Amino acid sequence: MLRAIFSLLAVFLLAALAVYSISFILPELARQLGSGAYFAVPLSWVGGVIGGVVLSILADVWSRRFSLLISILLFLIPLFLNLEVRNLPELYLLWFTIGFGVNGENGLSYAYAAELSPSRMRGLVGSLMQGLYFLGGLLGLLMSYLLRNPFTYFLTVSLVVLLSLPLWVFIPESRFRGSGELSMRAFGGSTLKTLIFGSIFAVGSFLFVVPLVSLSFTLLTSLELPAFQTIVVALLVGLVGFTIAGRLSDRLGRKRTTYVFLVISLIFSSLMFLEVPSIVEFSVIALMFGSAFFAYFGVWMGEIFPGEVRATATNLVFFLGRLIGGGFGVAIVLLLPLGLQRDLAVALLASSILVGVAVSKLPETAKGIQ
């Protein structure tokens, strides 16, 4: 079982590396293909919105294991094809497909984590999994720093991500094998309530995490602060925060732990809004740590939903979060009129409040916690 969990986490990390990889080579791609290259990133989120739902339905009605394999192939093959991309339509199609596959893989991994992990460690495993997005981003950042040429960079990333295929071999079929049809009756009652408030939680979380990760470098650069070093530290601290949050959620409960990290987020979002110049860098780092209220959310949803619709319901919860927070989160912040630092702070404050409202309506699932 430990081998299966390790393989699941490793595939999740490689999927994170795949989807983040374009972010660190965009200036060079824009130089070669035009400024329209920047639209490949939101297109990958749009692909993810669709792929997450489609692949999860396939998993629930057919096979989670083979749906996971399809999702891996859907981000692995287009990643290799970046070596030959010659124009913007090709780039858009490739990154739409990569997002389709990566978010399909993510949703299936949350369902698997809830099934494979011992109940006393589900929060930790789920948080480690979600925290691997920070590590995937760091790997992409470091590889782009060492490999400046896009061809060499994408070749190296693709060869690393290719490890997903042998790792998939060690992931077993789910005990909830597809019955050939989706049970709509499972979506009534408490499941519907969780879908509604889980979706609100997801929207708030993505509106917090995506703009924070995407715009912090720009903010620090505009303030003539050491952006690269601060972001590296912030991502590492974020990974540590996610791990701590997962363990706390197993001991204190999912809801109490969420409130603890929301308080951290509210405090440092407020300080960012007040534009205290001496602590901007520390605020960014602390906010990465505070974002750990999102750490165990995927596995939490997997615990709540019934097994026969677990993958579909979990991805439906993430649907609006990926669409609004992932697809439009950065644009929403940039359209605010207060200046980047305060715009970002307002978005983080509003997102934290949204998550706080949602978590109060979700059931506790940690063993022994009421």
UniProtKB/TrEMBL annotation:
SUPFAM superfamilies: MFS general substrate transporter. InterPro entries: MFS, MFS_dom, MFS_trans_sf. Keywords: Membrane, Transmembrane, Transmembrane helix. The keyword Membrane applies. It is a multi-pass membrane protein. GO terms for cellular component: plasma membrane. Pfam families: MFS_1. It is found in: Membrane. The chain crosses the membrane at residues 37-59, 66-85, 91-112, 124-147, 153-171, 192-215, 227-246, 258-276, 282-304, 316-338, 344-362. Residues 1-368 form the Major facilitator superfamily (MFS) profile domain. One of its GO terms (molecular function) is carboxylic acid transmembrane transporter activity. Coiled coil: none annotated. PANTHER family: CARBOXYLIC ACID TRANSPORTER PROTEIN HOMOLOG (PTHR23508:SF10). This is Arabinose efflux permease family protein.
